[in-house]
């Protein structure tokens, strides 16, 4: 949509411009000036560190001493390290179970909210709250809820006569893993539910009317209308969710610190422990870099497994 | 299970109206309201528990035998008092506020210019630049914090809030740019064409026409950035060492837990106070949150 040449000439004659404003009207310069702050910040503090991190993984850098190139030594050490293998296992397990939980419950909640309800906007506001509040602070609340001695959940179970001893939430490996997954699901439900609700609201009611006329059951309407129409959004939200669950740090760091006996370390918390308090930056960087293949795989998988349907159906959902 | 609102298909000839309405109403109760209430209770319980713990005297806190744990018989402000006058909590709040505000302003400025250039100036390859910025959001901080820690150290910014102000935009800019591109799209470009014909410069157009129209988008991006900065943990944990420069989330976890003595009341009071600014902010702008979240998904 450009102005015709004749008009441009007329504009230039109409006002004498200062050299500076002329410079700013020269498009290449303007574009560079506009892009510079954002691109500059991202290049210096995101792209460069990403490369630097990969380079560090091949050195034996420690805090306060720049490292020598040691080739694959860090990775060899990592592959022989049972703690790293356990962190890989737990990261995959945590991501898998928490994602299934989050999306199952989040979808259910979104479907519930998609009805005609009183106080709908207030409900939405309340439901988003867990996602808004700082993760670490809710993690501390969960830490208190899971307290071995004063756990409110244990107390309720005992009062109801379901158990006669306290539940050991975080001092043995498997209960600790499940406790962390529970906290992660709790935190993830609101985001998934509100995002999917937005998707549900874009589905045209006429589709449901047509299905009703054809005598469909509720399950069929969900299976053949709601779910396929939600897939594109589901793919995007799930990709995000998987990436941020796999690289999660805060919940584990706040509730168990990777314990008991390193059983609940995620790759991110293990990288932190080796790199920052442990001072082995090279080793920490190698562990952090080892997350990248998993992330790429998970992203491609979730994106293609879900989003491919979109063009098979030959219609977009926007 | 489905939750569509259409009444069940009944044979209209035989069903009486009353039974039909009663039936669908009770069904609605069971399939919609009961699960919804369960969801609400579970989602809100940790907040309730946090609040109630923050105001409980220690005698009640550690004695479930004689006190119902779900209620407070004699609320106390001791934990809050300890937090505000016995620790550096006000200082931590201040630091967090400064870091969040500065990082937000820096990100908004950069994102607005970038989004405008990508969406309106339409230079060669602008979509690819937009895509690259968007992809930057997918690089998790857990991968970046170790190399960033070495950089921060070499720049002499270790243990200074400045390090956080410079690093936070890495996850704020992609988000804001993406949000603002969507917003600029919704502003009719004919307005800008008219201004161009009238001889306005590009900067004048941005300043006098586009930005005033984009204010709701800017508010959305601003509150989101503020919230994300306030909640950030891993960078603040890795780059800040001394107690007085810590941000609230890090300080509560590292400064209030000393040895084996957990001051649960003070910990919960700290979590509660640390959540309040964000929650208050949120309650004022809740529609912006929901719309930017859903708008972002729709894009």
Automatic annotation (TrEMBL), chain A:
<dbReference type="Pfam" id="PF00528">
    <property type="entry name" value="BPD_transp_1"/>
</dbReference>
<feature type="transmembrane region" description="Helical">
    <location>
        <begin position="224"/>
        <end position="246"/>
    </location>
</feature>
<feature type="transmembrane region" description="Helical">
    <location>
        <begin position="29"/>
        <end position="58"/>
    </location>
</feature>
<keyword id="KW-1133">Transmembrane helix</keyword>
<keyword id="KW-0813">Transport</keyword>
<feature type="transmembrane region" description="Helical">
    <location>
        <begin position="125"/>
        <end position="146"/>
    </location>
</feature>
<protein>
    <submittedName>
        <fullName>ABC transporter permease</fullName>
    </submittedName>
</protein>
<dbReference type="InterPro" id="IPR035906">
    <property type="entry name" value="MetI-like_sf"/>
</dbReference>
<feature type="transmembrane region" description="Helical">
    <location>
        <begin position="285"/>
        <end position="306"/>
    </location>
</feature>
<keyword id="KW-1003">Cell membrane</keyword>
<keyword id="KW-0472">Membrane</keyword>
<comment type="similarity">
    <text>Belongs to the binding-protein-dependent transport system permease family.</text>
</comment>
<dbReference type="InterPro" id="IPR000515">
    <property type="entry name" value="MetI-like"/>
</dbReference>
<feature type="domain" description="ABC transmembrane type-1">
    <location>
        <begin position="88"/>
        <end position="304"/>
    </location>
</feature>
<keyword id="KW-0812">Transmembrane</keyword>
<feature type="transmembrane region" description="Helical">
    <location>
        <begin position="83"/>
        <end position="113"/>
    </location>
</feature>
Automatic annotation (TrEMBL), chain B:
<keyword id="KW-1003">Cell membrane</keyword>
<keyword id="KW-0813">Transport</keyword>
<protein>
    <submittedName>
        <fullName>ABC transporter permease</fullName>
    </submittedName>
</protein>
<feature type="transmembrane region" description="Helical">
    <location>
        <begin position="92"/>
        <end position="116"/>
    </location>
</feature>
<comment type="similarity">
    <text>Belongs to the binding-protein-dependent transport system permease family.</text>
</comment>
<feature type="domain" description="ABC transmembrane type-1">
    <location>
        <begin position="93"/>
        <end position="285"/>
    </location>
</feature>
<dbReference type="Pfam" id="PF00528">
    <property type="entry name" value="BPD_transp_1"/>
</dbReference>
<dbReference type="InterPro" id="IPR050901">
    <property type="entry name" value="BP-dep_ABC_trans_perm"/>
</dbReference>
<dbReference type="InterPro" id="IPR035906">
    <property type="entry name" value="MetI-like_sf"/>
</dbReference>
<feature type="transmembrane region" description="Helical">
    <location>
        <begin position="165"/>
        <end position="184"/>
    </location>
</feature>
<feature type="transmembrane region" description="Helical">
    <location>
        <begin position="205"/>
        <end position="228"/>
    </location>
</feature>
<dbReference type="InterPro" id="IPR000515">
    <property type="entry name" value="MetI-like"/>
</dbReference>
<feature type="transmembrane region" description="Helical">
    <location>
        <begin position="30"/>
        <end position="49"/>
    </location>
</feature>
<feature type="transmembrane region" description="Helical">
    <location>
        <begin position="264"/>
        <end position="290"/>
    </location>
</feature>
<feature type="transmembrane region" description="Helical">
    <location>
        <begin position="128"/>
        <end position="153"/>
    </location>
</feature>
<keyword id="KW-1133">Transmembrane helix</keyword>
<keyword id="KW-0472">Membrane</keyword>
<keyword id="KW-0812">Transmembrane</keyword>
């Amino acid at each position: 949509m450009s102005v015709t040449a004749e008009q441009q000439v007329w504009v230039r004659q109409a006002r004498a411009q200062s050299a500076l404003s002329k410079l700013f009207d020269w498009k290449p310069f303007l574009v560079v000036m506009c892009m510079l702050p954002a691109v500059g910040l991202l290049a210096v503090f995101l792209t460069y560190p990403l490369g630097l991190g990969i380079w560090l993984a091949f050195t034996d850098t420690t805090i306060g001493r720049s490292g020598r190139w040691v080739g694959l030594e860090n990775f060899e050490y990592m592959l022989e390290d049972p703690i790293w293998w356990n962190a890989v296992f737990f990261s995959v397990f945590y991501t898998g179970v928490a994602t299934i939980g989050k999306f199952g419950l989040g979808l259910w909640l979104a479907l519930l909210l998609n009805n005609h309800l009183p106080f709908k906007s207030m409900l939405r506001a309340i439901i988003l709250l867990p996602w808004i509040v700082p993760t670490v602070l809710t993690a501390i609340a969960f830490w208190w809820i899971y307290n071995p001695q004063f756990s409110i959940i244990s107390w309720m179970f005992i009062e109801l006569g379901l158990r006669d001893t306290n539940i050991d939430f975080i001092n043995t490996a498997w209960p600790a893993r499940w406790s962390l997954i529970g906290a992660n699901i709790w935190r993830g439900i609101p985001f998934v539910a509100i995002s999917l609700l937005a998707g549900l609201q874009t589905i045209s009611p006429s589709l449901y009317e047509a299905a009703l006329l054809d005598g469909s059951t509720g399950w069929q309407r969900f299976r053949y209308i709601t779910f396929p129409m939600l897939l594109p959004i589901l793919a995007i939200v799930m990709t995000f969710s998987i990436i941020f669950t796999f690289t999660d740090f805060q919940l584990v760091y706040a509730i168990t610190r990777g314990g008991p006996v390193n059983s609940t370390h995620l790759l991110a918390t293990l990288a932190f422990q080796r790199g920052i308090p442990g001072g082995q930056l090279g080793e920490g960087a190698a562990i952090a870099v080892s997350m990248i293949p998993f992330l790429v795989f998970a992203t491609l998988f979730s994106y293609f497994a879900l989003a491919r349907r979109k063009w098979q159906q030959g219609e977009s959902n926007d | 299970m489905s939750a569509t609102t259409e009444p069940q298909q009944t044979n209209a000839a035989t069903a009486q109206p009353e039974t039909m309405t009663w039936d669908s109403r009770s069904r609605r109760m069971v399939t919609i309201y009961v699960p919804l209430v369960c969801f609400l209770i579970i989602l809100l319980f940790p907040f309730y528990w946090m609040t109630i713990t923050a105001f409980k005297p220690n005698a009640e806190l550690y004695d479930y035998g004689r006190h119902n744990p779900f209620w407070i018989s004699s609320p106390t402000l001791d934990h809050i008092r300890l937090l505000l006058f016995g620790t550096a909590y006000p200082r931590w709040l201040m630091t967090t506020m400064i870091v969040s505000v500065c990082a937000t302003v820096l990100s908004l400025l950069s994102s607005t210019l970038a989004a405008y250039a990508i969406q309106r100036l339409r230079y060669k390859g602008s979509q690819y630049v937009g895509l690259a910025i968007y992809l930057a959001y997918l690089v998790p901080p857990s991968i970046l914090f170790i190399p960033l820690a070495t950089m921060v150290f070499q720049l002499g910014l270790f243990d200074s809030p400045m390090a956080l102000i410079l690093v936070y935009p890495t996850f704020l800019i992609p988000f804001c740019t993406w949000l603002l591109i969507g917003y600029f799209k919704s502003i009719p470009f004919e307005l800008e064409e008219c201004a161009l014909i009238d001889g306005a410069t590009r900067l004048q157009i941005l300043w006098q026409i586009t930005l005033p129209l984009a204010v709701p988008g800017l508010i959305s991006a601003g509150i989101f950035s503020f919230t994300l900065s306030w909640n950030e943990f891993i960078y603040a944990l890795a780059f800040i060492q001394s107690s007085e420069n810590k941000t609230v989330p890090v300080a509560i976890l590292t400064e209030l837990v000393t040895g084996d003595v957990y001051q649960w009341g003070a910990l919960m009071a700290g979590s509660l106070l640390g959540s309040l600014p964000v929650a208050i902010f949120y309650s004022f702008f809740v529609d912006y949150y929901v719309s930017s979240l859903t708008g972002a998904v729709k894009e």
